[in-house]
Amino acid sequence: MQRIRAMTTAALAAGVALATAGATAWAANDGGEAAFRALYKELIEINTTRSSGSCTRAAEAMRAHLTAAGIPAGDTQILAPPDRPRDGALIAVLRGRHPDRKPILLLAHIDVVEAKREDWKRDPFTLTEENGWFYARGASDDKAMAAAFTDALVRYRREGFVPQRDIKLALTCGEETPETFNSVAWLLRTHPQALDAAFALNEGAGGELDASGKPVALQIQAGEKVYQDFALDATDVGGHSSRPTKNNPIVRMSDALARLGHHDFAVALNEATRGYFTAEQALVPAAQAADMRAVLANPQDEAAVERLWAVNPGWNGMLRTTCVATEIAGGHAANALPQHVRANVNCRILPGVPVVNVQREIEATLADPNISVAPTGDPGLQSSPPPLTRQILDPVRQVAASIWPGVAIVPTMSTGATDGRFLNVAGIPTYGLSGMFHDASGSHAHGLDERIRVRSLLDGRRFLYEVVKRYADAGT
To answer: How many secondary structure helices (H) and strands (E) does the chain include?
Structure first.
């Protein structure tokens, strides 16, 4: 085990001073909002990009808030591989009354996507509040949840709340760059007890605002598609461009990719997607609701699927495996026949569908035995979506009704990828749940001028505080 303790005494004292100042603000008659805003700002403004940032520094700052609130230092640790001292993950525990019961895990990643100042309207590493929005890299993805979870543990401790079971916090590194390092995968491999839990709450779902800014749908994510890249290679002996042949790899690859581009994988529904489209019927125009009912009754109703796809490509992604060409490279000279062409095809595979089955379907669709198809990168992780039981859904319904009366609770499945893929495979059911609502334009995560509505962040903080409390104090 490698614990990163490389903070100077001065830096530690500064962190405790900030946290103590936060405690004073927390005690003010604002429900601790001022202290939360300060904690959120502090976390945002610590650069945690792969190129020049430090997750360890951010983890140490959040640990200072927890220990200042009274969580014993021995119940906190920062873990990282010996050769990656900047990639520290904070693991902290608020002890419950029954240590024999498995804890619940609050998971959020504190690393962020790269951001160039010259590309942004505002400094991406300075939190800006403007016209009811917070702007910064990580404002939404995922420092909003990381700050809310840290704040919740601070509040529980100060209030003297002792839950039935432990509440475990994991602020991790490398979610955005898993090809380099991912601390969830590393922790499961080297320190599995650090993340062991009855179930986990994670990013992966938010909420939908209507055109007037009213919350209409609160999502809870159960399961996610499997990420898998495939390399497609076509080769030939080449030659002089004045002597073309019928075996030009660029032409063959182009024809094959066109066939793949027109190919649709079969529609298949699971508990989460069936629940999603059932709930969405009440929230969309009548024509779209009719198409959703048609697909629920007959998943092979391609006409209805096509109409839904035209409205929202994300709906198509929830209904079927998708494979799309994302990169292509080939040829070696302007006056020579190409000898080699490679294309990358990125697939998002429905849970339960073997990767090898998708590879075979790609090969059959390309219809060119001279184009090889091989998976690249780490193998996609397969797991069944965790069940949406009453024990999971009832606290969500109860708290949501008190904050957003009449809001619909909408199960969903992520078409992207989160760290939940590692936990689900490890047998830790993981649900995406934030209570943070966005309008149709979204958060701009990974893009320019990432943002979150101030009201959405504060409502999400309240929601997570309440729902985690109910989960942790459940009798079973």
So the answer is: 14, 19
Q: Which helix (H) or strand (E) holds 394?
A: helix 390-403
Paired tokens of 275: 């629940």
User: Which CATH number is associated with domain 9-204+418-472?
Assistant: 3.40.630.10
SS3 140: coil
Angle subtended at Cα 170 by Cα 165 and Cα 176, rounded to the nearest 5 degrees: 150
Strands 336-337 and 239-240 come out as: antiparallel
Residue range 358-366: average pLDDT? 98
Using a 10 angstrom Cβ sphere, with 0-12 exposed, 13-18 middle and 19 or more buried, the burial of residue 244 is exposed
From residue 356, give the alpha-carbon distance in Å to each of 20, 202, 276. 55, 29, 28
How is residue 398 written in tokens?
């109860």
Tracing tokens 């190919």 back to the chain, one arrives at 263
- Is the model's pTM score more than 0.85? yes
Q: What local confidence, expressed as pLDDT, does residue 12 receive?
A: 40
Q: Please list the residue range(s) of the chain that carry CATH number 3.40.630.10.
A: 9-204+418-472
Closest to 142 (Cα-Cα) out of 446, 476, 366, 473: 446
Q: Which long-range contacts (CB under 8 A, 24 or more apart) does 125-130 make?
A: 125/44, 125/45, 125/47, 126/45, 127/40, 127/41, 127/44, 127/45, 129/454
Percent of the chain topping pLDDT 90? 89
The β-bridge partners of 109 are: 172
**Among residues of the chain, what percentage have pLDDT more than 70?**
93
pLDDT tens, position by position, 413-427:
998 889 999 999 999
**Burial of residue 372, with CB atoms counted within 10 A of its CB: 0-12 exposed, 13-18 middle, 19 or more buried:** middle
Strand-pairing partners, residue 313, are: none
For the chain, where do the domains classified as CATH 3.30.70.360 start and end?
A: 226-376
In 123-255 the beta strands, taken as DSSP E runs, fall at 128-130, 133-135, 167-172, 199-202, 207-209, 215-224, 226-235, 239-240
Fold of 226-376: Alpha-Beta Plaits (3.30.70)
| Exposure letters 282-310 (e unless 16+ CB within 10 A, then b) | eebeeebeebbebbbeebebeebbebbbe
Closest to 312 measured CA to CA, from 330, 298, 325, 295: 295
Closest CA relative to residue 94, chosen from 104, 107, 80: 104
pLDDT tens digit sequence for 72-101:
999 999 999 999 999 999 999 999 999 999
The residues pairing with 222 across neighbouring beta strands, listed in sequence order, are 431
Residue written as tokens 């797991």? 383
Q: Which residues pair with 219 in a beta bridge?
A: 410
Integer angstrom CA distances of residue 217 from 169, 338, 400: 27, 52, 10
